[in-house]
Amino acid sequence: MSVTLNPHASAASIMETPMVEIDRLNLWYGAKQALKDVGMSVPKHRVTAYIGPSGCGKSTLLRCLNRMNDLVDGVRIEGAIRIGGTDIYDPALDVTELRKRVGMVFQKSNPFPKSIFENVAYGPRILGVQNRGDLQATVERSLRAAALWDEVSDRLHESALGLSGGQQQRLCIARAIAVEPDVLLMDEPCSALDPIATARIEELMLELKNSYTIVIVTHNMQQAARVSDYTGFMLLGELVEFGVTRQLFTNPRDKRTEDYITGRFG
Amino acid sequence: MRKLWRSGEPFIWLTGGALAAALIMVVSLLAIIAANAAGFFWPAEVVRLTLADGKVLTGPIADRERIPDKADAWREKIKVANRDLYGADFVWVDEAAVTRRERPADVAVIERSEWGLLIGRIAALQEGGAVIARDAAAWPEIQRRLPAAAALRREIRAIEKGEIGEINFEQEKIRLRLRGLETRGVMAGADVEALRARLAALQERYRQQEARLAALRARQTATMLVVADGGKEKTLPLAQVIDVTFPNTMGLGAKAVHYVADVWHFIADDPRESNTEGGVFPAIFGTVMMVMIMSIIVTPLGVLAAFYLREYARQGTFVSVVRIAVNNLAGVPSIVFGVFGVGFFIYTVGGTIDRLFYAEALPTPTFGTGGILWASLTLALLTIPVVIVATEEGLAAIPRGMREASLALGATKLETTLRVVLPAVMPSILTGLILAMARAAGEVAPLMITGVVKLAPALPVDGFWPFVHLDRKFMHLGFHIYDVGFQSPNVDAARPMVFATTLLLLAIVVLLNVFAITTRNRLRRTYATSAV
Fold first, then answer.
1. Interface mutation vs chain B, best among A112, A161, A167, A177, most B CBs within 10 Å
2. DSSP states of A177-210 as a string?
3. Could you read off the pLDDT of B274-304 as tens digits, one per residue?
4. Beta-carbon contacts of residue B347 (< 8 Å; ≥ 6 apart)
5. Strands B241-245, B107-112: pairing kind
6. pLDDT tens digit sequence for B411-435
7. CB pair distance less than 8 Å for B420 and A112
8. CATH numbers and ranges of domains, chain A
9. Domain B285-527, what fold?
């Protein structure tokens, strides 16, 4: 059985403005199908989480949203994704423009081997901002938004690689939001962090959802339950169930979802 | 036994032993070079040996060895110098034949601009044939006059190299322009007349300088009379005297001062006497300049090629084959590169340049013959695999996450390459460059046929437009070692110089490397890649 849209989710979505709409998305890596008929809509200014076992396609789905999968050899995609009403797989669309609107934070923190300032200023510089004052304002705003400003304001010009793991990940968030995207994608952003750093990032997500639409992939079901408004459960490339987080965790409609969240799986 | 092997102890000893063996080999090689080179400049004591047959030999002892097939008999090699008087610099003496051995205080070792060292007693100072001072009184008077003689020598040299050099350079330019006009059929007219007039003016200037030189040379009338072994006398013009020492009366301090001065002359002076005397400055200059030009050519070429191979080319069989081919290029004998340099760069490229731009100078080639540009290009070809391999390895080590982070921010692939990948790969590029420079500085074979000469009349950089003359032939320390060691007429006398030159070449390679390594470490601190 392939559930495209959960009735509960659709009911909830009536009150929400959809930001990202995914329509019958199929994806193949060579001969292997990684996503099967996935369809859903991500509401604006909410945190949406994808959970599921390893290899279920949740990261692949996330990476479709800013077309990072384009970089993989032999990938083939069918179906449509609209972000803010624009079809992002339209051949006429400029991928770099899309990626400026859809920021991404990766599983492993990956600051550039540059100073903290230069890391955050990288995106604006790519956009063509030259003015030192503007850059400084953007850097400060982004670092404040990422709750990192107080810790690094006195060493902006030191290497970003001197920061702790949690600080590096928040720096990556600051770097992503410095270009003011509409959507922020987070691919297991806390999997390499300790519980305290994880808690800080989770707090941050709740802050950021006021300004951005956040889509997060996580292995950690407690995390999905804590931070997300909507959750999708994926299994073997299918979106098994998608709905309001509390409902999905307390009253799953699908037997497989129930098995997974109660830990009766694999 | 098995337990011992499993403990790992023997393997540690094995690895340590291999390292120790390598170290011993390198250190002893360096020690031999350094010891031989360092002794070259030290003013050696002079002994006077009287033999049983009454013959007298004076000079420093250069060597001592057992006579073959005779038990407990030794012979010594005396550097008697005075090549113009005796014919040979060195004499072997059977120790059994020596009846007297003394260290006379009055023996002077004279360095002169011709014929190598002169060893003997200063008997008199003469001026235009008349004796001015004799025996003990002669030396203080000579000492007083030597600085003036040296100044005069420098002035003459400055005129020859400076003013006359400039006149020759101008003359050659005008001659070529005249020939250029001639080939176009212009044999007369205002242009030709103007050029001829300038040529005449230059001729006049040349005559003036010649007169000046003649006047200066006429002032060099003082000579000194030196008495050598066997009563042989040598009248030596003061103008030819470069340095006079009395090694047997010199203290340690005086010897040290003399030593430092000699080292400095070796580094900073031009060679004399077909390279067996004097300094090696042109060779140092040529080596460094050649390595620099090579670096400027090989770095961009190698880095761009590596970027294409790793970043843009689709990884497949073809790219793998290219990669293997590039790696194997490093194993091609360097002389093959030299032959390619001659065939392609010199004859094809250089020949074409000559036909197109320097036609008036033909049949004398300008770029169609060996020169520093062609030698550098040949070496760039030789070292390009090193740069490509090092850069490619650096590119492969850059974490994927770093590129993705940049792309996810909306940077294009080009922006990512230039702003993130290139800075991060910089240390690897410098590593490749360091290896390339070390290889290029020590290479001799391909240079011998692409532009290195025994004695270059002028440096590739001078005061005449366009200041840098890439078509000129140049001198190189590696070739200098070969030339002095194996091609000079007096190999025995030149041998210490071979070691000194080798040491100098090593020092230059080390210096270039230290410079590159400090730069790399500074870059590494700035661009240290994260542990992603």
1. A112
2. HTT--SEEEEESTTTTS-HHHHHHHHHHHHHHTT
3. 787 888 999 999 999 999 999 999 999 999 9
4. B368
5. antiparallel
6. 999 999 999 999 889 889 998 998 8
7. yes
8. 7-110+182-261 (3.40.50.300)
9. MetI-like fold (1.10.3720)
